[in-house]
Amino acid sequence: MKSRIAILVLVAAFVVVPAPAAWAQPTLGFQVGSLTQVNIMGLLAVGLKGSQVTNTNRPGLNTETRLDDNTSRLIISSSSKIADGWAVNFVLESRFFADSRPGDPFVPGTTIYNTNYGWADGDTYGAISSPFGSMSFGHTTLYYTDTINVDYLGLAASPGEGYRIWDVNGLGSFNMLDQVTSLTKTGVGAGSLFTFGNGRARNVVRYNSPNFSGLTFSLAWTPNAASNELQYIAPDTPGYTRSYTNGATLYGTARYNKGPVSAQLSYYQSRVAGGAYNPAAQAGPTDNSGVRAGASYKLPFNLKIGVVWDRTQYDNSVYASAASAVATEAAKRDVFLIPVSYSWKDHAFYVTYSIAGNTSSVANTGATQLNIGYDYALTKRAFAGLYYTSIKNDSYGHYTPFLAGSSIGPTANSVAGENWWQFGANLNYWF
């Protein structure tokens, strides 16, 4: 009870403002009454892509050509003035397909549908803002997009990847920084564990600070980032020793931007609510945690060089030995991402190299990724360009391209040690 009271006191002390609107850009706006402004904005992102798995051990298709959505979305936001410097805010972000209809099956010829798109699937929250910062309540992105740079939309710079067009399957932030490979008893990669599932964390209370001479920070807490609020386990059920109320996620990030320097440091710790796990395979829930740090410097002639480091771990995802009955060890690894970009007039060129170290020091379980991109500014908000990605796994590695489709990508068909490449012609229009 005391801990709950402490949380309520903390929230009350910071009741001060929502995360800012998604992008600092012109929007379609209209008045609702004398004190409320409603804005409509979003992103249309689509690409024509050809991809191939170069490991012939994979069953099924090894090549694919497709028109693919790159996380298009529509955002409706509103703001109502409370007093000078104070306002109540609302953001609703919905995801839509630019390449297919919502009712089309995700896997052709089946009844399997993609549930990651739809009304209010993106960051959706209510908030109160003030000169002292903002406090928001809802479901929002935590950690996994940290260090992605979108300063071309008027937001503060970040040290990581900053393509004005992107191929969502090829972003190192999704494929390397946000993946951890679990291991079989023999130390072979057994699939990808994604940070928060590469999705919005649920039930989030978040504080965003004002800008202190280039320094900003955010703090967030959620009792259950996965939202399964009916997950109650009987106390005498074998293997389930944690009650629902013992799960929680804590998150914090600090970012500095001043002149040519950008830096960011983030941390999260997430405990699975309800103690849900398979006691026949794991010694406990797959609690996870991570720390990410990055810095970049932009030279006077528009050459930007950065480095990002991430260490993430998933508990109870590695077997201590081939003779172990259940997984008792944490799957953990370090990843380095080195983004370099150069822009001139309406053109920009990018090279990003990523390297994932061995999982839990087991040999040959890492991977590397190379991104090469070029884009051209059609307008200040629309960009077209070319994008190449190559992922090379070590013989026991299991890193896969995020959202790469039903036949190419992180599916049951993927195997450890395979390589993958993709070339895409993409369009991003921020409206």
Features:
20 strands, 16-stranded antiparallel β-barrel, 431 residues, Porin, globular, two-stranded antiparallel ribbon, mainly beta, 2 helices, disordered N terminus
List the helices and strands and how they pair.
Blueprint (H helix, E strand, L loop, with lengths): L1 H12 L14 E5 L3 E18 L9 E7 L3 E11 L2 E10 L28 E7 L2 E8 L31 H4 L3 E5 L5 E6 L6 E8 L6 E8 L25 E11 L2 E11 L16 E11 L4 E16 L10 E16 L2 E10 L10 E11 L4 E12 L25 E12 L1
Antiparallel strand pairs: 1-2, 2-3, 2-4, 2-20, 4-5, 5-6, 6-7, 7-10, 8-9, 10-11, 11-12, 12-13, 13-14, 14-15, 15-16, 16-17, 17-18, 18-19, 19-20
Describe this structure in words.
With 431 residues, this protein is mainly β. The protein has a single domain, classed as Porin (Beta Barrel), CATH 2.40.160. Helices cover 4% and strands 47% of the residues. It contains 2 helices and 20 strands. The strands form 2 sheets. A 16-stranded antiparallel β-barrel has the order 2-4-5-6-7-10-11-12-13-14-15-16-17-18-19-20. Strand 8 and strand 9 form a beta hairpin. The longest helix has 12 residues, at 2-13. It is globular. 40% of the residues are buried.
